Amino acid sequence: MSQKHPVIAITGSSGAGTTTVKRSFEHIFFRLGLKPLMIDGDSFHRYDRVEMNTRIAQAQQEGRTFSHFSIEANILDELERTFKEYGETGSGKRRYYIHSEEDGKSLGGYQVGTFTPWEKIPEGTDLMFYEGLHGGVKTETINVAKYTDLLVGVVPIVNLEWIQKIHRDTALHGYKPEDVTDTILRRMADYVKVITPQFSQTDINFQRVPLVDTSNPCIARDIPTPDESFVIIRFKDPSKFNVDFQYLLSMIHNSFMSRHNSIVIPGGKMGLAMEIIFRPIIEHLMDERDNA
């Protein structure tokens, strides 16, 4: 953790909704006039798309589990080093993973599924913001979570997460629903081993719970809307950020406490809740930076 160069990380599975949370933070950064360093977790994959597909096929032939969730499929020592170095100096290095042809063109003509070369992190950023799969990973040799000042988990209940991933991958990437389902099943062991434990490290978790039947996510025709959901917000240590639950209850209509450290809100109020919760935390981090 660093007072002078704060590190904020959003962690969750693909399809969990981390990108939506990222947009909420971007709005807060804009309103506060902050210049964040944006880090995409996919840039710390170990293999490009072609090589990754080859490794997955080889693992399946050998009866092994291998996916983007896997520790060995990512350079998490570099991720830990990036968090640590930025926290200490405000510097380090980064690269980009090319998700689309548009990304490739804007970054210099790189092919989809490849990486740009490593480059020096630009000077003058106010904080680092990471969004990806491994922001809270902790193993015997790696502790990424240790170097975060604010670690947020996004973890819908599993059926809803599957529905979101199936709809996202079919709409954005043109995959068939059955292919996305196969990917979900192939990743399940790594999900339990790598992704789930991170939510015990997070400072704040957002878990969306649908109020409609999602018992068969493979045939769901649409994603439950925010108004068809509740969101459970769990604070690991409310005293760390001086959480005022009475204030939250008064500001968010129809919210209620479910445990001493958890508040339940209507799904449509998630954006408002993030603004109320995260803005004062970020302002506090910036005050500490200025006073350091």
Structure characterization notes:
By secondary structure, this protein is α/β, with parallel strands linked by helices. The protein has helices spanning 18-32, 49-61, 76-89, 101-106, 158-173, 177-195, 245-251, 270-291, and strands at residues 7-11, 36-40, 93-94, 119-120, 127-132, 150-154, 204-210, 229-235, 256-259, 262-266. The chain has an eight-stranded mixed sheet with strand order 2-5-1-6-7-8-10-9. A two-stranded antiparallel ribbon has the order 3-4. β9 and β10 (262-266) form a beta hairpin. α1 (18-32) packs across α8 (270-291) and α5 packs across α6. It is globular and about 55 Å long. The mean pLDDT is 92.
Chain-averaged pLDDT: 92
CATH topology-level fold name = Rossmann fold
CATH architecture: 3-Layer(aba) Sandwich
How would you write the strand order of the largest sheet?
A: 2-5-1-6-7-8-10-9
Our count of domains comes out at 1
Shape annotation: globular
Total beta-strand segments: 10
Helix and strand composition category? alpha/beta
What is the distance, rounded to the nearest whole angstrom, between the alpha carbons of the first and last residues? 13 Å
The number of helical elements comes to 8
Unreliable runs:
none
CATH evolutionary superfamily:
P-loop containing nucleotide triphosphate hydrolases
Give structural attributes.
two-stranded antiparallel sheet, 8-stranded mixed beta sheet, 292 residues, Rossmann fold, 8 helices, 10 strands, alpha/beta
